[in-house]
Structure formats: C-alpha cells, structure tokens
User: Fold these one by one.
Assistant:
Number 1:
Amino acid sequence: MRPTDRLAVENDRLRLRIEALERLAAESRQAEEARRQSEEEKRQGAEEQRRRENAVLGRVTADVNLSLNLESVLKQVAEGARELSGSDVVGVALRESDSDAMIFRYWLGAHGMNTASLHLDGGTGLAAKVMALGRPVRTTEHETISSLLAVPIVIGNRVEGIIYVGNQHPRVFTELDEVSVQRLADQAGLAISNARQFRGHVRRQEELAVLYDVIRLFTGPLAGDALVQAVHPVLGRLLDVRRMLALRWIPETGTFELVWASAPGWSPDDAALETLVLRRNQTIRTTDYLAICQTEGVRPSGFAHGLRYAVLVPMSLADRAVGVLALWSTDRVFSRADEELLTTVAALSALRLGR
C-alpha cells in the first residue's frame, strides 16, 4: 500500500474514533442531564409531598386539638390519613381500656371488609404485630384489600389504637406513606387522650345522674318486673341496652325465674352462661359473646341472637348470688366503667329480689 493510501486509512480510523468519542461524550452528557433532571423531579416531588403532608397535618392537627369530641377526632384523623396515603379505605381502631381488644371506632370507604376479623384478643394477626412492635406494619392480599398499612397510635408508652389505610386496587404502600401516617398518628394520640379525659369527666357526671335516678326507683314503690322495666330506659341513657334480662334464682328447683326481659323469646333453656355467672358469683364481660360461650362449653342464648357484646353481672347479697342481670349490645362494647355501674345496679336488685 502506498504511503498516501496508508495515511488516508489512518485518517479515516482516527476520524471514526473521534466521532465515536464525541458520540460517547454526548451520550454521557445526555445521561448526566437525564439523571440530574430525574433527581430534580424527585426532589421537587418530595418537596411537594412534604408541603402537602405539612398542609394536611397542620389542618388536621389544628382541628383535632380544638375538639374534645372523640367521634369528631377519629373522623378527622381517618380522613387525614386517607388523604396523606392516597388510600381507598381507612379505619381507626382503639384499644379497650382494660384489655388487648382493638375495636373499630371509625371506618370509611370499605365494601365487604370483615372488620370483626381485626378485633384482637392476643392473636397473631396484623393488629397483634403492630401492638408487639410498636411501629407500622405493611402487608398485601388481605381479604378484599390488596395492600394494607397499619400504624400505631401510641399514648404514653402503650399502643392505644391503630390507623388502618388500605388499597382495593394494586398499589403498594411505601416507607414515605408510613412516615406520613405515623406523624398523623402521633398527633392523633394527643387529641384522643384529651378527648378521652373530657369524655371521662362527662361520663362521671352522667353516671351520677343515672345512679341517682336508679336509686330513686329502687327506693320507690315499684317491685319485680315493673321495677326492672323502669330501670331499663334509665340505664339506656348511658349504656347500649339492646337486650336486657333480669333473672331470679330459685334454689329449690335449681332454675331461673324470669323477672323481666326487654324483648320476648327468653327460655330457661337459654340460661347456661347465666348459670355459670351465678355459681361463680362473678361477672362475665366479653367483646365476643359466641366465643365466650364456646370457651365455656355452653350453648349461646337464643335471646341474644346476633348480639356480639355482653355483660352478665351476679345479683349478690354478701357472698351469695340470688340472680343475674344481663345486657347485650351490637353497637357498643361494654367497658369496665359500665361493669362497675351494673354491679351497683345488680346489688340494688339483689336487695329487692332477696326480700
């Protein structure tokens, strides 16, 4: 090959290498620009999310801190959590004061969701994990919900509630969602604590008024079924008394005699759990009536069909039970304060029935 031809070939190779390097440099600049643009978009997105989060948190926090109504607080917390996480459904469960049971107090957006399955009495489900860990837990494929995030509401050093946010459509919750809803849950804890203290004060005033009227009835001229019938609406001012039953124990026959029932349909064959209360002279209060009957190995009462919550209190004279006062509800759990009130009413009943 002639020198001039060789030089031309080398020039072509050099030109191609230069062009390749220039293309590589241009591609690198484009990649760097795309990376910077992507990072800027993420930064702006994160800033926008923080601004939105701060706006939602600021609004909800201001609203809940001004309210002493627990139902209003829970509604605003739930709606704030739904807005922060972009979820389809949201629920707020609170712990029963003297147990590990988490009971839903507010639920929004769910259709076909079995909230009863999320009641907890020392289990291994999602609520149990949140209570044990004290931090948010995410999961997928939960009943009709494709993804679910549960965030603890901590008051003091104890998990007192759980905020649930869920998606019925395929969208997984992120760590940012956890952080946002947890910030809301922290504010919710303060508001719920304030609302509970206020409610406790109001409850004590209402309880004193109810007790005054109950004592007035028991010291009046009414007796037997007329007395219990008159007490029923008075208790209804404070408790959910969907079903109420007063039974007198007849030692000679070893059976119960019906004093009064808030609805027809009671039968002596239904008194299995009531018999246990009388024999033990001890109250049974439960958030799952069917479960406690199964545990105790007795048949549920047909009188309480479809009612989940129950409290059965012995009517006692000294250390001897002379009857049983029983209440059932579907809408409200019976609390320890309810039990204490009913214990007083049952003692007054025992004085009248034991005459």
Number 2:
Amino acid sequence: MRLALLFARRYLLAKRSRNAINVITLISIVVIAVVTAAMVVVLSTLNGISDLVDKLYSPFDQDVTLTPTAGKTFSRNSLALDRILALPGVQATSWAIEENVLLRSGEQQAVATMKGVEPQYLEMASLPGSMYEGQARLEGDNGPLVILGAALKDQLGVPRDDGVMRPLTISAPVRGRKLLRYKEQAFEQEHVAVAGSFSINMEFDQQYVIAPIAFVDSLLHYGGEVTALEVKARPGIAIEDLSREVAAIAGPRFTTLSRYAKNSLMYRTNATEKWFTFAVLAFIVLIGAFNIIASLTLMMIEKQQDMRTLTGMGATTAFVRRVFFAEGLLIVAVGSITGLMLGLLVCAVQIRTGIVGLANSVVESYPVRIVPADIALIFLTVLLIGMLATAVSLRGLGQRYLIER
C-alpha cells in the first residue's frame, strides 16, 4: 500500500495535460473542506447553545432532586440526610418547600411560586452572581428577606429593603383549611421586605420568589415538613451516577431525578437537533464526495499509458486499483483536514472576539464550545464517506479501464 500511496501522491501533485482534471480535483477538495468546516462550526455552536440552555436552567434545577413518591410533602426525618451528605460526589444539600402564593405590593399583585430554601442554597444556585439588584441574602436586621425574579419585582413595583418597612405582602392557603368553610381564615398573610432581584431567564424571572425555609414553613403551616431535598454535585461528578447512588439511599418512598431527567425533553430536543444536523451535513459530504468519480475517471483516461507500463513491469490489476483508491483517499484527506483547520479557526475567532452577535439575547454573541470527540467523529465520518465513494466509483471504472486492458 505504501508504493501505491507514493504513486497516488505523485498523481495528485503532478501537472496534467488536461486542465479539467485539476479543476475537478480541486472542486472535490473544496467541497469536502467547506462541508467539513461547516460541520465543525455548526456542531460547536450547538454545543455552545446546549451549554447556555443548561446554564440558564441549572440554578433552580439542582443536580439531583428528591421528592416523595406519594403525596406532596414528607418529614425530614424520613430521609437519611447524613448518608447522602457522606457520598463523595455530594457538595451540598438544601431542604426545599415550593408553593404557589399571591404577592401584593400597594395596588399591584401577582401569582408566583414561592421557594423556601436554606441559606446554603444561595451558593448552590449561584444566586450571588445572578443578582440584578440588591444582595443575595435571606435575613436582614428587621427579620426575614425574600429575593424576587427581576420581572416579578418590576411588575409589583416593590422597593428594596430599607431596614424599616415590609412592603411585600404574601398570601398563601393554609394547609388543611377548606376555602368554603374557613373563607378568609383559609389564607395566611405575612409582610416581608425584599433583599433584591435576580435575573436568570425569562421564565424564572417572572415566576419565582426565594424565601427562608423557616418563613415559608410558618406561613404555610407545614410543621417542619418539606416538599423536596435538592442536592448539588461536586464539579466533575457524573450526575446520573450520583442520582443512582442517592436513589439507593432514599429507597422507593422517594422519586430521585437528575437535572437531565427533570428536563429530559429539553435535553433530548437539543441532542436530536445536533445529530439531525450532523446527518444532513454528512449527506451533503456524501454528495460532494462523488465528485471524486469524475476526477478518477479523467485521471484513469489520462494515465492509461502509465497503467500499461506498470502492467508490463509486472504490476497486477489489484495494485493499479490500489493506486487510484489511494488517490481518492488523498483527495478526501486533504479536503477533510483543510476543513477541520478552517472550522476550528472560525470557532476560535468566535470564542475570542464574539464577532457574530446575538441581538436581544441573554448573551452578546453566539456561544461556541469545541468538543474533541466531535472533531474526531467528523474526521472519521468524512473519511469513511470518502472511502465509500472511492470504492464505489472504482468498482465500475476498474471494470472498464483496468480489466479490459
């Protein structure tokens, strides 16, 4: 094969009597290079968008969440928290209570989801880095504080904590009290100050209010029960593996979901979009690779005298076939390597400069993340398609130009 490759390299670089051969060969290389570069850029962009979506949703959807299999709440003592904290992959945990409430400030009101959490949840959710205004804290000099989504705070027009006033009124149904029987007594009200507002994404900004879990427990009359335990994994830990370990400790009384399982539709949609795009581009590579047929056809016509000479010197038909097979592989290899370099260059420029912007978005430019496994897959796919196109073309051309002579 080494000798066949030597002949193939010589044919690729040599001047030809027919300029059309050079042009068609160049077209084959360019088509493969352009589509390969497009595959690198598109897949890297889709990786970046997936990371962005994950980043936008991960603050509230912790890595692992435990909820009761039956019912809405459970006692904290029913779960072996110490064993979960002892797992090597667990960084932190927080009990949580979620309930829909009515918020009022002056004449403005809004329905929101109140989430009661422990203080460490603020770091678990990276809220200090997501604050739009104010501070990420749940306790002030005048009592408990809450943190509103930026859109929710703007809708209510509620001022930030001044250390004196408690301008936000939270109304919630009291657990176990029927509206028809208790009427106004079926609702509990509390006045509280606002520490600030966070901005993560439009959905959370319009929906959530974060509050101390003791405050929420008192307001809802939960008696120490909670609706969930949220677990944050250490960096680099496989979340699905950790979810299975936590589930083994929690037992069948609890439903254990990873962040990916909770948002399975979103993640599956992103993955499906990525691989569908990859398949479409690979099909374009397949179409472009068949330009090799024209190139090899013209080359065989031009090199008929060389083939007779090689055959006269004892070369077999199989050897001549390997020469042209290597020629096709060289065309594919040059095109794919050039395309990979071009695609990586485009991605590097976007990462460094953000030259392609995103108007009216949460980020200023298209996010890009290069995954080495994707690059390897692209190269192998293009190479395999090129081998297929070359083999198919040689099967027909060889019978005409090699076997008959």
Number 3:
Amino acid sequence: MVGFRSTVQTLTAKPWFRMPRQPMLRHLSYAAVAVVFFYFLTQKLSAFNDYEVGEIAFFAIGLAGLSLLTGINGQISLGHGGFFAVGAFTYALLVNHTGWSLVPVLLVVVAVTAVSGALIGIPATRLRGPYLAGMTLMVALGLPYLTNQYDSLFGGDQGLTTPPPTGPASVNPEQWLAWIQILGALIVLVLLGNLVRSRFGRSFRAVRDDEIAASLAGIHVARTKVIAFMVSAGCAGLAWAFLALSAGVVNSAEFPLALSIYLLAGMVIGGTGSLMGVWWGAIIIVYLPNEWATSLANDFHANSLVSANLAIIIFGLVLVVGMLVAPGGIQGALRWIAARVGSYFSSGRVTNVSLSLQEGVDPIHPASDGESVTTAEKQGV
C-alpha cells in the first residue's frame, strides 16, 4: 500500500497530469472527456436507452439554470415549468412556420425565454423567500394553462407537432438525437462554468450572501438578479426545446406542477450550486418516476393511486434523508470523499479535509464549488 501511495504521489506531481488553471481550458478538457464517454456509451446502449440518455442531457440543462438561480444567486423558483412551456412552444411555432435550421431556432428559443425570464425577474427583485416562490409558482401554473385558450395558435389539447431531426443513414434516430442533446448540454455547462467564474458569478454569489454588502461594494443588486433569472430561463427554454425535438409533439399536458417540484428536488439531491451535480439530479429525475418507482410499485402490488404518487413520495424521502446525511447533495458528498482520499495520497499537509458531511452547509444556498465570497472579491467586482 505504501508503494501504491508513492506511485500516486509521483504521478500527480507530473506537470502534464494537472488540469489547466485557465477556466475555459479546464472546462473544455472536461467536456472533451465527456464527449468521448457519451459517444462510446451511446454506441453500447439500445435505442430506448439512447433516448433516456438524451433526456438526462436536457434535464441537466434545466437543472444547471435552476442551480445558478437558486444555489449561486439565492433566488428560489418554483416556476420553471412556465419557462419550459415558453421554450417548447416557441420551438414548435418556429419549426412549423419557418424554414430555419436547428441552430438558429434554438438560439431564438433561448432569446425568447431569456426575455420572459426578465419579465418575471424584474418584479421578483422585490420579493424574497416564500413570496418569491409563490410568485414563480403562479407562473408555472398560469403559462401552460394560457396555451389552451388560443387553440388556433397553440393547437389546444392536441398541441403542435415537432418533426425530429434527420441524421446520417448509418446512425439510428434515437442515437443521433441523443448526440445533439448531449452536445447542447456540454456547451451550456461549459458556458455556465465560465460565467460563474467571471465577475458575473462573483456578483451572483455576493448578492446571495449579503445584498446590502454587495450594494455597498458597487454591485447593482436588482440588475444582477434579473440577469440570473434571464440565464436560468434561457437554459429552461433550451432544455424543453430539446424535449420537443425528441417527443414529436408539444401540448400543455407536458408541463404539470410536479415537473417544477421534481426539478427543485433533483437540484438539491444532486448538489445545489454545483454544475457537476446537475448530472446526478438529471439521472434521478429521469429514472426515479419512470422506472424505479414503477418497478417498486409492481413488486409490492400497489394500487393505482399509490403507484401514481409513489415517485413524489420517494422524492420527498430521498430529499429529507439527503439533506440530513449530505447537505451538499451527491456531488458534495463525492467532493468530501475525494478530499479525504486526496489528503491520504498528498505528500504535503492538507487542511480542512476532515469536515463532517453534516457540518453547516445550507442545502439551499451553499457556496458554489467550495467557494465563498470574501470582502476582497466583493470589492473587486
């Protein structure tokens, strides 16, 4: 074991083993590794499993936007189902009434949903806590219902059809669709990763930690909150444009209130404020309601009423247990384990690695990726 430890120390001391210090290069390196991983993964999976991988990718986009808004900027939102509706219907309308290719359509979807985020974010700057959650909840309930009032434009209960993209003949449609969604998710995460490391990210965290101190440091608090809402809404719109791309139809039934609850729970379970944690949250959102809860209900021969609500019950239990055992979510727990392992193999003394998983970490407003906003950072924004 001593020899193995020495080998690891020698390997990690090599300059080529270390990740680039520049954030963009580091994030692009992670994305390149992820591209290779997902390519070989989709090659090995069936068509249905490729479809599920695509679902994980667009849920990761939605969770990343919500994690930035709630975990990094400190604004609680239950209304992302409304932004999903805006993005999906905008995509369907553009596809059906224009001859544009996929990339321009997606860019317009992001722009439209970002504007809708600004319209919600401006009044939201005066609200906090449960008042803000209540207002965004009304958005999640109202916007999908509004589409049923204009049948000629939005298709009523039948909704609007969205033709799938055409890929190479040698690639099955589900695999091609999964590649598009994975690529979109990686691009979004690279951009958000650089955003939260920029002065905007420091402003987001400063406003989350103390609005008065941030204002005294020269940060425009209201504008910072609106920008966070716009970025988060743009991610939500892009995520559901990808859903419309794979589902083939868009209607108001695609945006139940439970969807916004699942998204918030998935964010907390994966790791609030962590862009890596969104993948864990997306996996749980995709597999827990559709497969794990259904399989568990069948094993216990539960009736239809229990089966319909079992996923929400399990989400609640996992959320409570997770907040007690690992307040930083799955990604926070993995980071804690990695720190302990790293301290064992480190040749020098590493401090602050023996922290308990239950040490004071706020599951709603944790520091992003182990960072905290110092006074110097606030003054340098």
Number 4:
Amino acid sequence: MKKSGSSESKSPSQLIDARIDELGGWRGEMLGRLRTLVREADPEVVEEWKWRGVPVWSHDGLICTGETYKNVVKMTFAKGAALDDPAGLFNASLEGNTRRAIDFHEGQRIDEKALKALIRAAVTLNRSKPRKAGRNPRPAATAAKPTQLQRDDKGVVLLSGGNPQIAKGDGDAPVQAYIAAMPGWKSDLGKRLDALIVRNVPNVRKAVKWNSPFYGIDGKGWFLGLHCFSKYVKVAFFRGASLRPLPPGASKDKDTRYFDIYEGDALDEAQLGSWVKQAAAFPGFLAPRP
C-alpha cells in the first residue's frame, strides 16, 4: 500500500485522491472508477470528506458515500430505500427504511449505465424532497444558499451547505476565523457555542481541521467538533455514546453522537454545558497536529 503525505491543508477532493492512491490495488481502482462515474452522472456534484475519512458526494443533500473495507468497496446511498432500482444494484443494507448500499468485490463488473441512472435519481430526489413531517417550521434563510466555491463578503470560500473553507491550524485564531465566516445566523451561534465550551472547559485546546473547528484537551485528543450545513450547525461529540443523557443524533461510528441546531432553536445551555464537561473528561479522538 502506498503512503500518502500529510493531509494538512488539502481539499476534500485532494484527500479523496490520496485515499485512492493509498489503497492501490483493486480497491483503489474500484473507488477511483466509482468516483469517476459519480462525476460523470452529475458534473455539479460536491465532494466532501467526512466521518474521519469517508469520501462523500452531495448535491442538495447527501447522494452517497464511498467506503472501503478489506474485501469490499461500498457505495451507501443515503436515501436508497426511496429510489427505484430496476437493475437490482443494491445488495447490502437492505433491511433499513432509509439507506441502501452496493458492495463491490474484486473483479466485479460495474453496470455503469444503471449506476449513473441511480445517482441521477438520488440527485432528483434530493432536489424534490419535502420538509420532514413533524419538524417545526424554520425561518426562511435571508441569504442565497451557499454553493461550492461561493465566497462570502470577506472572500472566504463557502463549500457545500455554506461550510467555510478555512486553512488548517492550531489555536484560537483559525477557529475564530471559521466562526466569523459562518453564514448568517450561524456565526452568532458559533460565537455562543465557542464561549460555552471555553466556559465549561477553560483549558480547552482548539484547532481547525478538515474545515471544522475541533476542541480537545492536550494529551487526551479531541472531544468535540462543529460543522456548518445548509439549514443547521452540527455539534459532534466524538465519545458521545458515553454521555448521559445521550445526544440525540446517532452516527455510523458507534462512539460518536450528534446534536443539530437549527435557526430559531432554543439552546439548552445547561444540558449542552453538561455534555461538554462530560466529553472533555473522556479520552478523545486523536489526530495529527496541524
């Protein structure tokens, strides 16, 4: 397997390039081919790098991921259960109500025409999806929806969902640059969350990694991360499964739990502060220093 260089300051697309190069062999070739088909099916697709190293393709919402395991390369479609699959491509995660996946094995032929049709259908579904039933209406955004490579009034690149593209770095300064670039109401929320974290963990260490602020303790790793999406800000607790009560959002990673904050939400600072204190007490997620 080839060794990649540092991931510091790389874009999501560059990180995916590096992953394909690292894998090598049939898995690298398979992931590279699947990525090409996604781009051909949707030239406007946005590439992202999430969940500690998973290639993600989005267009008005998540389309699919490209996960690699020892014996398979897996494409997981976020809303696959709602898609027509006349070619019968889906062969994994068939028991759920939302996701569907395709496991590709070594030497397997790709039905490229059917796969591209499935990708386009996922994009169409994303663009036509109604608001989820039972969720309270949220105030309409006052600014145009950010898109990949859109820039804010300070010249900061806004990626998918309006997430600021800030150079990786250690310390408070890059985190404050990220917060200042968060679009609209999210910037005030970012300031509030940052102050709450510092208040509850005075010795907190800060950094920006993978276009997200990270909070941690020296010698113990990172316990919390923030990330902007189109309609909400996600607070990720990397050892959230150990918190009580559990943060509401589940993750594919068994240890991580999420808390999503929408515009107009009443923020329970006492509960959030309790989660922050608990999270800081556990061993965190270890990642290289910038």
